[in-house]
Amino acid sequence: MKRFVIISATWFGTGFSPFASGTVGTLGAIPFFLLLSRMPLALYLLTLVAFTLFACWSAGFGEELWGEHDSGKIVIDEVAGYLVTMIAVPPTWQGVLIGFAAFRFFDILKPQPARWFDRSLKNGYGVVLDDVMAGLYACATTHLALRFL
Fold it and tell me: What is the pTM of this model?
């Protein structure tokens, strides 16, 4: 079980990056998005909900494993946030790039209520839900940017 959590929480080891592990973890989410983007929207959303719940569990277990809140090694939250960002975004290089940039911007900025989740919930849900909120802001931004390109 410990090995499974390490693989999932670090998103196949991307969380062990010596620099910008959140950015590297988000880059690691792109192939997963491209795979999921072939699904009908309803199935994508259902998969996203299931994955987000799994990410909460994995992040919580990872916090226990590493003994620290929101460890930099845990990047499955970035994966969930990026998948939220990419809801109904076409899997083009423009969509992927704008979504990536928008998600990283909002994940770092943490506008409310993302900041509240990050500071108030001290478990796997807090680790993941701030990224989900950042993903919602990034999703709207990505759709607006693609509309005007």
Answer: 0.95
